[in-house]
Structures
1.
Amino acid sequence: MKLGVFAVLFSDLSLEDMLDHIKEKGIHTVEIGAGGYIGDAHCKPEELLADDEKCRAFKQAFDDRDISISALSCHGNPLHPNPEIAKDHHEKFVNAVKLAAKLGVDTVVNFSGCPGESDYSKHPVWITCPWPNDFSEVVEWQWREKVIPYWKEQAMLLEYYGVKAAIEPHPGFCVYNTETALRLRKECGEQIGVNFDPSHYFWQGMNPVQAIKALGQENALFHFHAKDTQIESRNCELNGVLDTKSYKDINSRSWVFRTVGYGHGEGEWRDIISALQVIGYEGAISIEHEDGLMSIDEGFTKAVDFLQGMIIHEGAKDLWWA
C-alpha cells in the first residue's frame, strides 16, 4: 500500500505546485479530481482527450516527480432527475474513463447516483426506511428502472477501456453501505467495486473492518479514502445519526468528519490497515480532508504523520510473516 492524497484539497494550487507540495510530505501517489461535485482544478479530461500534447505534458508532470495517479475521481450523480445535471455528470464520468485508459490509470471513482421517486421528480429522493409501503416501492423502482440499467451500460464502457469504477458508498445515493455496494456489483459486473471511506461507515454505525473483509471476499475493494468521523455522543443519543444540520453547525451535529485519528484512535485505524492487508489490498491510502476544525494543511500534515508510520509498521509485518 502507498500513502496518497485526494488532490482536491489543494485546488487553489497549480498542478505543478500541488505535486511539489505533496512530494515534500513524502507522498508518491495522488487521486485527481476530474469533474462533478469535486471540480476539475488539476485535470480537465475533455481538453486532455482532445490535445495529445497537453495530455503528454500532464502525464510528464507526474513522471518528473515520481508520483503515480491512484485514480481519477468525478464524484457526481449521473442518475439525477434533472436531465441537464444527469447528462453533465454522465459525460464527466465517460471522459474520466477514457482519460484514465489513455493515462494508464485503472480506476475511476464516482458515486452510484440517486434518481427521484419517479420519472416526474425534480430532485433526488433517498429512502431511509421501508414503511409506509410507498418507500419500499420507490427503492425497488429506482434500482430496477434507473440504477441497474445505467450501471450495466457503464460496465460495458469500463470493460471496453479496461478501467474499473470504484463506487463510493455514501448516504444520499443508492449505494451507501456494504449490502448495496455488493448488490450493484452482482447485478452489473466485476468492473464495478468500491472506493472505501471509513468515515461514511463510522457515522452510520457500521464496522469498517468487517465491511472491508466482506468486500474483500468478493474482490470488490478498489480504492480507499483515509478520513475519520467523530461521533458526538450526547447529540447522537438524543437524535440518532440521521442528521441534516449544516456541517458548519459542529456543536449541534450528531457526528462530524475529522482528520484520521481525531474520531477514532490508533488501535482502530491499525485494525483497518491490517484488514486491508488481510484482503490483499495493495492500492492507495488516499487522504481526504473534510475536517471543519482544522485548516487543510494542518489536517493533511497530521494525517500524513499519523498514517506514515502505521503503514510502514504494518508492511513490516508482511515481511516478517513471509
Note: Confidence is low (pLDDT under 50) at residues 315-322.
2.
Amino acid sequence: MNSFIFENSTKVYFGKGCVREHLSEALKDCGENVLLAYGNGSIKKNGIYGEIMDILLRAKKNVIEFPGIMPNPTYAKVLEGKRLVRERRAGLILGVGGGSVMDCCKAVSMAAATRKDVWEEYWEKEGVIDFEPIPVGVVVTVTGTGSEVNGDSVITHEEKKIKTGRDYRACNPRFAMLDPEYTYSVSPAQTAAGGFDMLSHVMETYFSAPDGENLSDAISEALMKSIIKNIPIAMEEPENYEARSNLMWASSLAELRLIKLGKKCDFEAHQIEHQLGAFTDCSHGRGLAVIHPAYYRRICSCGLDKFARFAEIVWEIPAEGRTKEEMAQEGIRALEGFIRRIGLPTTLRELGLADKGILKTIADSCAINTGGYKVLTKEEIREILEVCFE
C-alpha cells in the first residue's frame, strides 16, 4: 500500500433516535443563530422538519430558513446562502437532506467566511483555505454521496456549464446525524440511484493501483457485496431497518476516505458524469449507471487481474474454466444486469438526452483523471459517450 496520513474530524451519531437524543447537545457551542438548510420540502411531509425545528426552538436557537436547495446545487444558490449567513450572523449551518444539501452547505460555509470569489479561487482550481469556514452540521435523510463525513462539495456553475467537486478538509461537517429511520420515505427510484452512487464510489477506489493483497481492497469488496445485497431489499421493503442501516453506513464508509488510504483512486466516471450533469441536469446516480459499464469495458484490459477478481469475489462468478479476459467481461455483464434489475437507465437516451451532437462538447469539458488503470483522451471519452447514447 502507498503511505498515508489519516484524520477525520466529523463526529458521527448513528442509530435510531440519534437526532432526538443528541442534536441539542451538538448545538451547544454554535451560537444563537442557526441557518436551517434543506431541499424542496420533503422533510416537511415526512415529519423530520417538525422534529428538528422543535429541537432547535427548545434549544433557544434563532432559526434562519434556507430552503429550495436543488438536486444539482448551483453557485447562484451558494451565493444566496452566503447572503443569509452574513446578514443574519449565523453561527452554524445545519443541513438536513442528502448530498446536494450537504454539498451546498459546505460551499456556503466557505463563501460566507471570505471576501474571495470561491468559485474562481476554490472550484475552478484547487485553492488553499486560509480562513475558518462557518461550522456545518448535517442530518442525513438520503444516503448515497457520503458527503456527511468529508469536505467534498460538488457545485454547478450554470452559466459556465461546469460541475466540479472539491474536497477541503476544513469543510468537514462538525457532526453528522445518521438515523436510518429518516430514510424510510425515500422512494425506490431514489434508493436505487443513491445506492448506485455509493457503489460507484467504492468501485472507483477499488479499480486502481496498488493491486496486490491489501486491506483497503478487502474492505471495498465487503462494502460492494453489502450494497448490492441491500439496495433491492430497501427498494422492496422501505422500512427494513437492517437494509437501511447497512446502506447508510456503507455510504459513509465509502467516502470517509478510509478505503482510499494507500490507493491511487480513479473517479474518471465521476468526472464524465459531472459534465453530463452540467449539460443535462440528470440525476447523479442514474448518470453513473449509464457510464460505468461502457467505461469499464474500455479500461478493463489495463487492469485485468482486478476486474477478474471483481467478478469472482463480488459477483461470485466461478473462475474455473474461464480466462481472466472472460472473467473480466462476466463481471461487467453482472454489473450491467444489476443496474437493469434495480431499474436504473443504461443509455443516455433514457436519461433524456436527445441531441447526440452535444457529446463532443461534453467530452471536451471533462477533467482527465490520472489515478485509474488508463488515462483517457477527450476523444476516448467522446467514444464512451457515443456507446452510452443508445
Note: The chain has a mean pLDDT of 96.
3.
Amino acid sequence: MATTPRPRTSTRDPEEVGRRLTTWLDARLPGARVGSIRVPSSNGMSSETLLFDIEHPDTPVRACALRLAADPAAYTVFPVYDMARQHRVMRLVAEHTDVPVPRVRWLEEDPGPLGAPFFVMDRAEGRVPPDVMPYTYEGNWLHAATDAERARLQEDTVSVLARLHDQFPCREAEFLLPPGKGSPLRRHVEAQRGYYTWVVEGVPRSPLIEAAFDWLDAHWPDDEGPSGLVWGDARIGNIVYDGFEAAAVLDWEMAACGPRELDLGWTVYLHRFFQDLTVSFGQFGLPDFLRCEDIERRYAELTGHTPRHMEFHTLYAALRHAVVMLRIAYRQLHFGEVEPPADPDALILHRASLEAMVRGTYWS
C-alpha cells in the first residue's frame, strides 16, 4: 500500500472553484466572498468535498464545506450523483434524530455555476480516522490511543447506528427504494448488480464478484428483518470525532432503505478491510477493535434488535466494496496511474478476503 499511487480524487482546480463559488454566493449574500478554499486530506473517491470560509458580516455560517458532484468528465465512481437526494437525507436525519449531522445550508441543482450540482453545509471540527495510511497502521491518533479510548469511540459509533435506525421513521426512508419489485433487500442487491454491470461495460468482467453474487443468491436470509433508513457508508472514516465521541456523521450518498444489518455489516467489513491489509504488510493492526461479536452484542443491548445473518451482510459489504474498488482501479487505468493486469480480479485489493468469504473459510 505504501508504494501504490493514491488514485486522483479530482480533475478540478480549487482556486477556479473558489472564484466561481464567490460569484454564486454573491447572488445570495451580496458582498460575500469565499476565503481560502482547500481540499481535505480525507477527500474520497466519489463526490468531492471542499472546505472554505465565508467572508461577510451577516453570514449565517462562516466555516463551510462544499459537497460537489463528481466531474462527469473524470471517469466517475458512480453513474449518478444525486445531490438533492443527499441534501434531503441529511435534512431529514437532523429533523427526526439526534444523530449529529452537519447543518445543510444551500442546495444548487443547476450544474452551471460550478459545472455540477452541489450543496453547502456547516463545517464540522474534529478528527477523522485516516484512510491513507489506514488508522490500523502505526503513527496516527487512533492507533496511538489507549484501549479504553478506542472502546469509547467504538461504543459511540455503535450508538450512532442504533439511534439512527431506531429514531428515523421507516416511512420517511421509502423514497430511497430503488425501482423494481421485491423486498428492500432484494431491490438493494439488484441495484448493486446493475451498478456492477455498469462498471464492467467495455472492460473485463470479474469472476470473483460474479461468484460472490451467486453466493448471495444461494444463502439468501430466510428472515430479512425490518427495513428503514441505513446510512450506507457506515464506517468510522466518515465520522468527525470530538475526542472519542462522534461530532458529525458525513457522506450520505449511499443512504438507502433496507435492513439495519446493511450498516452493521459495512461497519464490520470496512474495518476488516484495513485490518487484513495491515496484517498482510507485517503490522499487528487493531485486531480487538470493531469486532463483529462486540458490535452485535452492543447493538442488541441498545436497540433490542439482535443482528441476524451477519455472515451474509459482511460478505455483501465485501462484494459492494469490491465493485467500488474495481471501478476505482479501472479509473486508475484510465488515467494511466497503474498497468493493466492479466487477471481483472487482481484489481480488487481485498481479493483474498472475498475469496475466503465465498469459500466459507474467512471467519474460521
Note: The first strand starts at residue 33 and ends at 38.
4.
Amino acid sequence: MTSSTADASSNYHSLRAELETLTTEAFRPELSQIDRLSTLEIAKIMNAEDATVPTAVATQLPRIAAAIDAVAERMSRGGRLIYAGAGTAGRLGVLDASECPPTFNTDPSEVVGLIAGGPSAMVTSVEGAEDSKELAEADLKDLSLTPDDTVVGVSASGRTPYAVGAVEHARARGALTIGLSCNAHSALAAAAEHGIEIVVGPELLTGSTRLKAGTAQKLVLNMLSTITMIRLGKTYGNLMVDVRASNEKLRARSRRIVALATGASDEEIEQALAATDGEVKNAILTILGGVDGPTAARLLEESDGHLRAALAASTG
C-alpha cells in the first residue's frame, strides 16, 4: 500500500468514525422497511417527523433572539449579513439572501449568500468544495469584511470545513459570527460568537439532511433575516412597507399595504404613491402624517427609515 493510499484510507476511517457520532447521521432500524409501506403511510411518517422541527427550534429561541439583536445593531451601522454554507445549507442561505431585496427593498450587497463552489453549486454539486476552509476564506476576502458585518456559518453536521472556515476567518477579522448547526457540541457553534444548535435527531433517510435539518435551518434563517429587518424599521406592524414593487403583483400589494395602513380611499392612495415615486412607506407617511412627499422623505431619513418614529415627528 502506497503512503497516499494509506493516508486516504486513514482519512476515510477517521471521517466515518466522526460521522457515526453525529445525531443527523444516525441509522434508525425501525425505518429499515419503510420502502415496503404504502405511499400514504410513508407520507404520514414523514409529516410526523417534520412536526417535531419547530419544537427543536423553540429550545434555541433565546440564543436566536440574542443573535438577531447583535445582527440588527451592526446592520444599523451599515454592516452586511452574510451566509456561508455548502450543499443544502449553502442553497438555503442563498435563497434567504435573494429574497431580501424584493421583500425589504435591501440592496443585494446588504444580505449575501455564499455557497461552496460558487453560483454553479446551486444546481450542481461541486466536488470537494465543502471540504475547503481556504475556499471560504477566499470568498470572504473578496467581500472585504468589516467589524460591522455578520457571517453566519450554516452546516447540518456542524463540521463542514467551508462553514467552519468562514466563521473562523470572520471572527479573526472582528466580524460578528453565528454558527447554525443541527448537532450538539459542534465545531461550528464552538467557533462562533453565537452558537445555535437545532438538534432535530436522525433523519427519515439516514444522513439526508435536506429533510428535518434543512427545514430547521430554513426556519432559523427566516427568523434571522425577517426579525432583523423588523428591528431595522423595514416593516410597519406586520406590513412590508419597504416592499419593492417590481411587477404587477407587487404593485397591487403596495396599494393594498397603503390601504391597510391608512384606510385611505383608492384615489388618496394613488395620489400619495404618485407624490412619493411609488414608495410605500413614504406614501403612508404623507397620508397619516399630513405631509408632502419631500417632507416625508426627509422625516424618514432623519428617523433612519423607521416609519413609527417619522410619524411621531410629523405630528409632534
Note: The radius of gyration is 23 Å.
